[in-house]
Design the sequence.
């Protein structure tokens, strides 16, 4: 019995490559559609080293309906995990039309192509940014949307579009996953985050300071109303997020309708707590200085994760120490251009 094929748009990226590992472990065959605008095809070779199965790569744009039609026709896809998108908040403020084009129009073109192909099981990569910066934590899925930047608005609009689709056509099974702060790397050290240029996000920046690639971490504000004054977030291991997609796929394939689920740990950690955890994991001291608050930053937020457990049977299993240990292993494993010979792992290792 051949493995059921799942189209993973954006599957060569950070979340996508880890999701391919989890899908293969669950008995699926990923078919990746990706422009590689923010990733490297060799990440799929790394997926093969870890699992023994190399995802098929279709190098195409999610906004290209004809390419999607050809992909559905050629690969017998049974469901879609939709991760392709642009994700930098600051960039979305500077280039809103670029973000609406890829994230919103791309999702519309994909949904239409799915409908033409008769494929109506979809897991969509949403974000906690749909909640905005004024919701009390822990934040539950029923909290009102209040995105405060174009990026968050694109995610919120796609969710609304998919909800309308689901209400109009009961054949669709849809799961919208609102990731909080995915961090870490696969435990093998073969996959991880590949930030282009200076990282905007905390964990990759700390990792590069620990490795001596960056001189010092600037803490964006230490005068927030939090335990130590620094920003608090719900960091969640990228492999937990990946496994959350498998759980959501199982649910969406069996139950028509639409569900939203927070993917987080349900706990907040401050910047200084992350720094301490990374110092324990790496054995390195992280040089830092306190800088001004970063515009647009919320003081503190973390997820209410009860619904993800109730509806998906999913909860995060990896703690902050493992997130840091796996990030550090990835940081140390190789020059991040994937320019080293790809090591061979026993499949399924
Ligand atoms: P990423 O940039 O590593 O992965 C996105 C992938 O999509 C890349 O491989 C990129 O080449 C591809 N892509 C971009 N535009 C495309 C297009 N038009 N057609 C086809 N492929 C395209 O980012 P990621 O962190 O893996 O994020 C994946 C998804 O998860 C995104 O939709 C993002 O908005 C969402 N998300 C990420 C985070 C996070 O903190 N990383 C948090 C919440 C939600
Ligand atoms: C975390 C904390 C910073 C860097 C972002 C996106 C969000 C989502 C996840 C896509 C904050 C502090 C950071 C640094 C610092 N992505 N920090 N020094 O902003 O919570 O969320 O990634 O969906 O949309 O907004 O993550 O890692 O940038 O910041 O002090 O050099 O670390 O102030 O408190 P954020 P982050």
Sequence:
């Amino acid at each position: 019995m051949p493995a059921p094929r799942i189209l993973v748009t954006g599957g060569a990226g950070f979340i996508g490559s880890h999701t391919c590992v989890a899908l293969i472990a669950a008995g699926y065959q990923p078919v990746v559609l990706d422009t590689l605008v923010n990733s490297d095809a060799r990440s799929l070779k790394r997926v093969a080293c870890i699992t023994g199965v190399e995802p098929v790569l279709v190098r195409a744009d999610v906004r290209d309906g004809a390419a999607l039609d050809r992909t559905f026709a050629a690969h017998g896809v049974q469901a879609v995990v939709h991760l392709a998108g642009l994700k930098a908040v600051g960039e979305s403020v500077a280039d809103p039309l670029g973000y609406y084009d890829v994230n919103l129009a791309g999702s519309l073109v994909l949904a239409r192509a799915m409908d033409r192909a008769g494929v109506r099981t979809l897991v969509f990569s949403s974000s906690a940014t749909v909640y905005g910066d004024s919701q009390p934590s822990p934040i539950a899925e029923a909290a009102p949307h209040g995105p405060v930047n174009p990026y968050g608005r694109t995610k919120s609009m796609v969710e609304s579009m998919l909800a309308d689709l689901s209400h109009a056509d009961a054949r669709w099974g849809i799961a919208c996953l609102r990731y909080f702060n995915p961090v870490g790397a696969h435990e093998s050290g073969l996959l991880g985050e590949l930030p282009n240029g200076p990282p905007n996000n905390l964990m990759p920046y700390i990792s590069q300071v620990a490795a001596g690639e960056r001189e010092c971490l600037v803490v964006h504000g230490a005068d927030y109303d939090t335990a130590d004054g620094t920003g608090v977030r719900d960091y969640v291991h990228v492999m937990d997020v990946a496994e959350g997609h498998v759980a959501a796929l199982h649910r969406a394939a069996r139950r028509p309708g639409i569900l939203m689920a927070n993917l987080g740990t349900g706990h907040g950690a401050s910047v200084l707590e992350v720094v301490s955890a990374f110092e324990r994991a790496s054995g390195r001291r992280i040089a830092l200085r306190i800088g001004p608050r970063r515009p647009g930053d919320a003081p503190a937020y973390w997820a209410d994760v009860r619904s993800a457990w109730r509806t998906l049977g999913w909860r995060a299993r990896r703690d902050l120490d493992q997130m840091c240990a796996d990030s550090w292993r990835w940081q140390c494993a190789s020059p991040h251009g994937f320019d080293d010979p790809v090591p061979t792992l026993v499949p399924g290792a």
About this structure: The first strand starts at residue 5 and ends at 9. The chain has a mean pLDDT of 95.
